[in-house]
């Protein structure tokens, strides 16, 4: 099996009725010939690694080191978290706004930034996150 390797830059991301549409920009010299020859609608298995400023793989755990505010923001953007909340009967809409509002209300905080000081809210947030991760493994 021959694989295609190239460097690309994310320039857009949209959502349509079938899922997300990721638009990448490739330098003309980087486009693999076999991809140019494939028909529109061809399926690929994709493996992508984000590069840091030194053109080396980015370690996301180091980029967001256990900051609960950042973790809460990432969680509220996760489409699977939206599905989790709907399945559990917590929300009715798959959106970041609905997830954020639910999380703030559930934790008894007015802003996710309160997770820095509010230990009770932080402990409960970690419980919610663990429940979501357990649910996610069965999806």
Short account of what is shown:
With 139 residues, the protein is of the alpha+beta class. The protein has helices spanning 33-37, 60-63, 68-77, 79-87, 96-107, 119-137, and strands at residues 9-16, 19-25.
* H-E order: EEHHHHHH
Which residues form runs of ≥5 with pLDDT under 50? none
Spatial strand arrangement across the major sheet? 1-2
**Total number of beta strands:** 2
**Mean of the pLDDT scores?**
89
- Tally of distinct domains: 2
Calculate Rg over CA atoms: 19 Å
- What share of the residues lie within helices? 40-55%
How many helices does DSSP assign?
6
Structural class: alpha+beta
Strand content: 5-15%
Q: What is the 3D shape?
A: elongated
Distance between the termini: 30 Å
The largest sheet is: 2 strands, antiparallel
Describe the protein.
With 139 residues, the chain is of the alpha+beta class. The protein has helices at 33-37, 60-63, 68-77, 79-87, 96-107, 119-137; strands at residues 9-16, 19-25. The chain has two domains: 9-48, no CATH class; 62-137, no CATH class. A two-stranded antiparallel sheet has the order 1-2. The radius of gyration is 19 Å and the shape is elongated.
What order do the helices and strands come in, and which of them pair?
Blueprint: E1 9-16, E2 19-25, H1 33-37, H2 60-63, H3 68-77, H4 79-87, H5 96-107, H6 119-137
Antiparallel strand pairs: 1-2
């Amino acid at each position: 099996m021959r694989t295609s390797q190239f460097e690309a830059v994310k320039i857009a991301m949209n959502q349509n009725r079938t899922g997300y549409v990721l638009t990448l920009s490739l330098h003309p010299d980087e486009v693999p010939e076999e991809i140019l020859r494939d028909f529109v609608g061809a399926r690929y298995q994709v493996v992508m690694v984000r590069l840091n400023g030194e053109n080396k793989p980015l370690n996301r755990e180091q980029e967001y080191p256990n900051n609960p505010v950042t973790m809460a923001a990432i969680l509220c953007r996760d489409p699977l978290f939206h599905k989790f909340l709907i399945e559990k009967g917590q929300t009715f809409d798959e959106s970041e706004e609905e997830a954020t509002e639910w999380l703030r209300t559930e934790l008894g905080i007015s802003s996710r930034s309160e997770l820095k000081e509010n230990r009770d809210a932080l402990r409960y947030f970690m419980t919610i996150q663990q429940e979501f991760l357990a649910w996610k493994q069965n999806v």
